[in-house]
Design a protein that fits this description.
There is one protein chain. Helix 3 runs parallel beside helix 6. By secondary structure, the chain is an alpha/beta fold. Helices cover 28% and strands 26% of the residues. The strands form two sheets. The protein has a seven-stranded mixed beta sheet. Strands 4-3-1-12-13-14 form a six-stranded mixed beta sheet, covered by helices on one side. A hairpin with a 2-residue loop joins strand 13 and strand 14. It has a single domain, classed as Metallo-dependent phosphatases (Purple Acid Phosphatase, chain A, domain 2, 4-Layer Sandwich), CATH 3.60.21.10. The chain contains nine helices and 14 strands.
Length: 345
């Protein structure tokens, strides 16, 4: 009897903490994910990236996730900084609209020399969050935004290439209370075209993928491959906990052909294609309460983008007993009515 009372007391404390949190039912906002904009104009495809910048402003998004390979890159710091400055100038309308831009490095931004590239990166993007792990400050970071938790990973730290800092990620996730979790990094977790990706280290990749699931995440945005590819990654035949891999290397880099085979080391996961397009564009994510809808916006003509592939999910909210997207006294009433029962009905 004492054990049952203790459990109930702990649940009430937990519930009251949840009750004090923000109601997510009325929260509505958007963000865009894309990457790989390297090209011939001082390392940037300024035509396509410029179009995307206009889309970002017109869509009135809260922020942009840009998962690497902003530029062609160079082992010369001055040249690399010049290219990154061109990228930032091309995105000027986005910055001027006070839309946050969260970017991480790709292999071209790294240029094979962290001493050069990290210095250049920090000089051009000093405003990026500085809460990353030691040795990755301004490169790897997390952001809490409204009812979402966003985590960006650098995957090119010496001694940790093609991997993430799992200990830091687990600590960050444990401290998060927001229902939506969005994760991004340059390399696919499950191989499509490029041979080098996170499955170079499948054990570490599996821990990373499970870490996203445990955190409540449903989408991982990446690039490296220059096309749009949406895959569902499953390990238990339960679609409500699958994580979807979005390859959105679609911001201007030369587009790739692909045979359509996820033939890397997939471990015990089944990788199923949802949609694939060889074209420029971006993913628009619209969040309304606990619901999120991800839409592929495809370039069909100059400065013209139209909706394609669509996927939606509903996040879980701790303490939301009746599932209405709000933790409030209606949930407390349900708890009270079932107080003396062995389990809630």
């Amino acid at each position: 009897m004492k054990k049952r009372s203790t459990v109930r007391f702990v649940y009430v404390v937990f519930f009251l903490v949840a009750l004090s949190s923000t109601s997510f039912a009325e929260t509505s906002w958007k963000f865009i994910a894309t990457c790989d904009s390297r090209g011939s104009d001082n390392g940037v495809n300024t035509v396509i990236l410029g179009e995307l910048a206009t889309e970002m402003v017109n869509q009135e998004v809260d922020f942009v996730l840009f998962a690497g390979d902003l530029v062609t890159g160079s082992p010369n710091q001055a040249v690399l900084e010049s290219q990154l400055t061109t990228w930032r100038d091309t995105m000027a309308a986005v910055y001027d609209a006070n839309i946050a831009v969260y970017c991480v490095r790709g292999n071209h931004d790294c240029s094979g020399d962290n001493g050069v590239s990290i210095a250049a990166w920090n000089n051009i993007f000093p405003e990026l969050p500085d809460n990353g792990p030691a040795g990755e400050v301004n490169l790897t970071y997390s952001v809490a935004h409204k009812n979402a938790f966003i985590v960006g990973f650098d995957q090119y730290i010496d001694g940790q290439r093609h991997r993430v800092n799992q200990t830091w990620f687990d600590e960050q996730s444990a401290a998060n209370s927001n229902p939506h979790v969005f994760v991004f990094g340059h390399e696919p977790a499950f191989k499509a075209k490029h041979l080098d990706c996170l499955d170079d280290y499948p054990t570490e990749r599996d821990k990373f993928w499970f870490g996203i699931e445990r955190a409540g995440g449903r989408a991982y945005f990446c690039g490296h491959d220059h096309f749009y590819d949406h895959a569902r990654v499953d390990n238990d035949d339960e679609p409500n906990n699958d994580i979807h891999q979005y390859i959105v290397g679609t911001a201007g880099a030369p587009l790739y052909d692909w045979l359509g085979n996820y033939d890397g080391d997939n471990s015990y996961y089944v990788v199923e294609n949802v949609d694939h397009v060889k074209q420029y564009g971006y993913v628009l994510c619209e969040v309304e309460g606990l619901s999120a809808t991800l839409t592929w916006m495809e370039r069909i003509d100059v400065e013209t983008y139209t909706a394609g592939d669509v996927w939606s999910y509903t996040a879980a909210l701790a303490g939301d007993i009746n599932g209405d997207g709000v933790v409030n006294f209606k949930d407390l009433a349900i708890l009270g009515n079932n107080w003396l029962k062995t389990k809630l009905e």
